[in-house]
Amino acid sequence: MKNQQGATIVEAALVLSLLFLLFLGILGFGVGLANYAAISHAAREGARFAVAPYTPTNALPTAATVAQKICAELNSGFALVSCSTYSAGNTAPPTVPTCVLSGGTIPATNDVYVTQCSVAEPNNTTVAYTEVDIRKDVKLPMIPKLSLHTSVAMRNETN
What we know:
Layout lengths: L1 H50 L11 H14 L34 E10 L5 E15 L2 E13 L4
Antiparallel strand pairs: 1-2, 2-3
């Protein structure tokens, strides 16, 4: 009888430690997924903001203004990422050399990228669109670093 009580305690310790690890994995996956959702939402909002012209002047916002909007979305959400500060007229966000959605490479550094791209149409015209890329590394406790990336492209409404 005494040997069985010791075995029960050992079995309980093993099972509870495995359940705790499973719980930590589920928690880490949930936090990573929530961060990806926040980054994707911020990229969509930034792209939507970038392609809609201001009503009084019918001009598209600058890349720095778009980056400010994206950073405001990131900072207001659940994302565990920091965002660079872009002033409206002084500092522009980086761009990607070739748009990711046109076959370019994913940005290698953590930042918000706002790029103006164009696509040739079959009728010998080009369509301009704005691509927003966000790349962020998220470090969670007890879980390796997650590299999150999202790309959103929308056609400019001034075409």
